[in-house]
Design goal:
The protein is mostly helical. It is built from twelve helices and no strands.
């Protein structure tokens, strides 16, 4: 009745005390509190609705977590990326079989080794992917692995330069 009379602020504590979570969630939305409403929807197990309202509140990570509970991994990965959780987004993309996106995100997260390994596991050891993996290993200062990839890709000059760098560091 209070909600019908536009007295939402007075209704909220009453719904909370009564444990009337569905009504509380609706009232929170009317009160323009989507983040709180999303948390209530999560408690109710209504994860898709929670994700929607977390997004409208700009809470990308929470929205991603809610979507994971619905099985929407690809959409969750996009939200984790938007939230800046690049490693989590990359892990989801790798699990979904999207190695290129996973590798790109691992690289953006500063995880060159994970980026290179993901690329090689999924794309194979062709010259193109070996060169890209070598670059990623170099970005992580993994000179030995980078040199090995360059050698296997048929680029002995680049491999030799890196093996020389490894030798200098060991002295």
């Amino acid at each position: 009745l209070l909600v019908e009379r536009q007295q939402v602020a007075r209704a909220l504590p009453l719904y909370e005390r009564a444990g009337a979570k569905p009504k509380l969630a609706r009232a929170l939305l009317l009160a323009k509190q989507p983040a709180r409403a999303a948390r209530v929807y999560s408690e109710l197990g209504r994860h898709a609705e929670a994700a929607h309202h977390f997004q409208s509140a700009g809470l990308w990570r929470e929205a991603g977590e809610a979507l994971l509970l619905t099985g929407e991994e690809r959409e969750a990965a996009e939200l984790f990326e938007r939230a800046g959780d690049l490693e989590r987004a990359a892990q989801l993309h790798r699990r979904l079989g999207d190695a290129e996106s996973a590798s790109r995100l691992f690289a953006r997260a500063g995880l060159g080794v994970a980026a290179a390994e993901t690329l090689l596991e999924s794309r194979g050891r062709t010259a193109r992917w070996l060169r890209r993996a070598a670059e990623l290993f170099e970005s992580a200062s993994e000179w030995d692995q980078a040199a090995s990839c360059y050698a296997e890709a048929g680029d002995p000059r680049q491999a030799a330069e890196l093996y020389e760098k490894v030798g200098q560091q060991e002295q």
